[in-house]
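Q: Structure tokens for this one, please.
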Amino acid sequence: MEFRTALNSFSSKFKIEGKDKLFFMGSCFTENIGNQLQRLKFESIINPFGIVYNPISISNSLEILLQNNQYSETDLFEHEGAWHSFDFHSRFSDAVKQNSIEKINQSITSASVALKSANILFITFGSAHVYLLKSQNKLVANCHKLPASYFDKTYIEFNQTLNIYNSLFEKLKEQNPNLKIITTLSPVRYLSDGFAENQKSKAILTLLCHALKDNFEFVDYYPAYEIMMDDLRDYRFYADDMIHPNHLAINYIFDHFSTGYFEKETLFMIQEISKIKKAMEHKVFLKESEAYKTHCQKIIQQIEFLEKKYPFLDFSPEKAFFIH
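A: Here is the predicted structure, written as tokens:
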């Protein structure tokens, strides 16, 4: 008997190849998938604004990149000895205002160029809640731990948000005709809002994702949230906080994602790269032994085989690691 409801592999609208350029925007789950693919040598840009949870802020960020809009000192505010932007994660904050501006503008410039040549845009929506800064009537991507009284909290309006994304996706496709888009929902439950509120939020985002998939032939939906809620409905797949998926769950979802979006050739490529990465992570006690030197030579030969088979990949760090 099967004691779980496994979500079978699905038929994706399109495939991802090893030479594709990937661009990731959204919640922390975006970084989980993006980091996995970056580790496997996919050319990737991951969250150039930092982690962003709500669809409106993600849309605003992409609009900034489409125009390559640069920030100035008037776009920052000071709080507890550091300068911040409401549009950027705290990793762009700094005690020196100019340093923060430089980090922000460098990220915008490089990401704007990358977006124009990306093959796949992967967007993960985290929450349908948005926070409005009362003093400016401004929707923020990050509250930077300012007092809750500074903000009004509300839900996105579905029809308005759908119209925003319909327009955004048309602009993205016009600027980059080769672009394909994958949307997904973060499998993280935002239980600080309450169980019912989390479900309402995810329901709004689910409707948004499926409407966009229906509206555009180049847009697909990946069911990460559904896998976590139904296939992996067991707390052994959660981190200690019982909210975030653990490494086992993330790897399971990534494997499922891979079978849906990768052809056999790409699956072979990532399997071979993964073997090399695991060999690099293996702890060796006798690096000067002949056995280890022979082992390294075999891996170098495998790397050289992959270099010829996939000339678009750079294996120089791996070769340097194993050369004695």
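A few notes: The longest strand covers residues 21-26. Residues 21-262 form a domain with the Rossmann fold fold (CATH 3.40.50).
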